[in-house]
Amino acid sequence: MSSAGRALPDTGLVVAARQGDQRALDEVVAASLPLVYNIVGRALRGHADVDDVVQETLVRVIRYLPALNDPTAYRSWLVAIAIRQVRDWEQRRRIALNRDAGLDAIHNVPDPASDFAGMTILRLGLTDQRREVAEATRWLDPDDQELLSLWWLEETGEIARTEVADALGLSPGHVAVRIHRMKEQIQSARGVVRALRARPGCPDLRTVSAEWDGVPSPLWRKRLARHVRECAFCGRLNANLLPIDRLLAGLPLLPLPAGLSAHFPSAASPAASQAFGHQPPGLSAEQTVGQAPAGGVPTDAGGGPSVVDLAVHRPRGLVPSLAAGVAAAVLAITLAVVILPEDPAAPSWAAPPSPAPTAVASPSSAPSRSARPSSRAPVAPAVSSARKGVGVWNFAGASQALASSKAGWYYTWGTQHPGISTPQGVAFVPMIRSAENVTAAELARARAAGPYLLTFNEPDLAEQANMTVEQALDLWPQLMATGSKLGSPAVAWGGPEPQGWLDRFMTGAQARGHRVDFITLHWFGADFATTTAVDQLRQYLQAVYQRYKKPIWLTEFALIRFDGGGPQFPRQEQQAAFLTAATAMLGQLSYVQRYAWFGLPATDKDRSGLFTDGTEATLVGRAFQAAR
């Protein structure tokens, strides 16, 4: 195991920071960020509040570092503070859930884009059994997620067992018992992961998991693991599982996201990078930490106030407005920090940690903005995501609503967006809606609008594009001539059905040598129960992918029941809960490249919409803002 992680930050740097050296304090905080990010991110399973908890941890480090009696104990002290903040967050979350039980699904779903298991797999390039171990961690009990964050760091050589024990307030022996139990849970989850991924799979396992919503949980781990243990077929799949410790040994810490490093360049300095497995080329400590101008406050390399100065000397009453997601965590610290009680007394955890349970005890802090005071408060910080899209038709304030929605892309069922301004950083995707739109002018506008082109909206419905398969195939070469990446015609239903509209189109396209780059789908759920609806959507997408083996764009979806007499909508709370759980599920399907909610405006007619005007988001709209 590498011991590089335990070597930094240097004790001399900590001493200088304690004595008021602004530059040293900036470097200590920057070097601490990757470790805090990994502890908090894994313990919270990538919840949207990761950035808040990282922020609160670093602010407390800045505030109470002068009270640290033993600079050599800095790392243990830092880990203890991070775990304290994780526990405080869990307590606030439980209080919020009890007070606002109607939105359980919204509060409780981890953010898929910040999911540490998925990020570990993708960004560290894990394969085979290491990938299975990372995926298995999603199935742990909540209490063991905290332990996992520390044990993982111990296995990668970043912290020692004594530091794990200090952070948890347990003896090393008790920690060993808990780790043994947690490893057994991961091992059983590995068997579940492997059995679920097997092709062809176990028919009996499909029966057992028929009601599973596709989201890993401790309850379903126990149910599915019981089957795996008792099933001869599934048991054979797990005959060659290597010990977990061997698979994790030597793995580096998960690197900071590029966006986060860009906003906190000090964290990417050679000292910090060497400690945390992230080494951007061409940066030196002198380039990443600025000097204080004469008569002014300390600055970073970009000329702005340093993170420490803004954290400690922030304006009174400043309310932070964080860009959501881990990539904005430290940018948020640099710009605005949560208001902490102005209590000069250092809490008990500012002392050097010891094996005693009181090592991580602290007085209760003021509730953070993570604790929602009412159901009308935002469910989470707004999140921008390139995957997240929305269907838009013009209404009063549409441009402002589009920007506020934090959608990364949008479309208007046409090749133009009259009356709608495209926000900076947001992509407009054109559509050739029907046969009558296959004209030279429309195709030219589609070509100019960007690299992607949506095609033929619900050709299987008389009130929409209303096209035969042969008609669509005959017109397809003109769409290919745009050079755009083409989505299949977006059928209203029956995507995976043999001899259905889409199946006949894809068969005909292959026979004629036509190019189809991705599958476009619509889906509207008639069952308003969140778990059932999400499971039905997941099964539909999986069936389509298994049939065509192409990436999928889900360009219209919501809960709407069409059974005569006009569309029927669920309650706002139900729609919001579905949106949150569904987008979390979509984030776990690697073949779903983009999705678009139906739609942006919310009226008496369109009650699945996100905004009633340019500024007022519905409950569904607030759930969309928090989605990725």
From TrEMBL:
<dbReference type="InterPro" id="IPR024655">
    <property type="entry name" value="Asl1_glyco_hydro_catalytic"/>
</dbReference>
<keyword id="KW-0804">Transcription</keyword>
<dbReference type="InterPro" id="IPR013325">
    <property type="entry name" value="RNA_pol_sigma_r2"/>
</dbReference>
<dbReference type="Pfam" id="PF04542">
    <property type="entry name" value="Sigma70_r2"/>
</dbReference>
<dbReference type="Pfam" id="PF11790">
    <property type="entry name" value="Glyco_hydro_cc"/>
</dbReference>
<protein>
    <recommendedName>
        <fullName>RNA polymerase sigma factor</fullName>
    </recommendedName>
</protein>
<feature type="region of interest" description="Disordered">
    <location>
        <begin position="347"/>
        <end position="380"/>
    </location>
</feature>
<dbReference type="GO" id="GO:0003677">
    <property type="term" value="F:DNA binding"/>
</dbReference>
<dbReference type="InterPro" id="IPR007627">
    <property type="entry name" value="RNA_pol_sigma70_r2"/>
</dbReference>
<comment type="similarity">
    <text>Belongs to the sigma-70 factor family. ECF subfamily.</text>
</comment>
<feature type="domain" description="Asl1-like glycosyl hydrolase catalytic">
    <location>
        <begin position="402"/>
        <end position="622"/>
    </location>
</feature>
<dbReference type="GO" id="GO:0016987">
    <property type="term" value="F:sigma factor activity"/>
</dbReference>
<feature type="region of interest" description="Disordered">
    <location>
        <begin position="271"/>
        <end position="308"/>
    </location>
</feature>
<dbReference type="InterPro" id="IPR000838">
    <property type="entry name" value="RNA_pol_sigma70_ECF_CS"/>
</dbReference>
<keyword id="KW-0731">Sigma factor</keyword>
<keyword id="KW-0238">DNA-binding</keyword>
<feature type="compositionally biased region" description="Low complexity">
    <location>
        <begin position="357"/>
        <end position="380"/>
    </location>
</feature>
<dbReference type="InterPro" id="IPR036388">
    <property type="entry name" value="WH-like_DNA-bd_sf"/>
</dbReference>
<dbReference type="InterPro" id="IPR014284">
    <property type="entry name" value="RNA_pol_sigma-70_dom"/>
</dbReference>
<dbReference type="InterPro" id="IPR017853">
    <property type="entry name" value="GH"/>
</dbReference>
<dbReference type="InterPro" id="IPR053183">
    <property type="entry name" value="ASL1"/>
</dbReference>
<dbReference type="GO" id="GO:0006352">
    <property type="term" value="P:DNA-templated transcription initiation"/>
</dbReference>
<keyword id="KW-0805">Transcription regulation</keyword>
<dbReference type="GO" id="GO:0071966">
    <property type="term" value="P:fungal-type cell wall polysaccharide metabolic process"/>
</dbReference>
<feature type="domain" description="RNA polymerase sigma-70 region 2">
    <location>
        <begin position="29"/>
        <end position="92"/>
    </location>
</feature>
